[in-house]
UniProtKB/TrEMBL annotation:
Listed name of the protein: DUF1737 domain-containing protein
UniProt cross-references to Pfam families, sorted A to Z: DUF1737
Positions of the DUF1737 domain: 10-55
Matching InterPro entries: DUF1737
Length: 61
């Protein structure tokens, strides 16, 4: 099994406002080799839509 770069964990959850910055963070993780784990969780904090996206490092033989 290969490991994520730069000492990153195998499992990550990214959270933040649903904006371009959040989308870029998720896209960057996918570019590194992470895969989406299920769909995002979405909530509203009274001002902004907040998103959480879990990502996993794929097991490779």
């Amino acid at each position: 099994m290969s490991t994520p770069p730069d000492g990153l964990p195998v499992y990550r959850v990214l959270t933040g406002p649903d904006d371009a910055t959040f989308c870029h963070r998720v896209s960057e993780a996918i570019g590194l080799g992470y895969e989406l784990h299920e769909g995002p969780a979405v909530t509203f904090n009274g001002e902004n839509v907040i998103v959480a996206q879990a990502l996993i490092w794929p097991a490779r033989s």
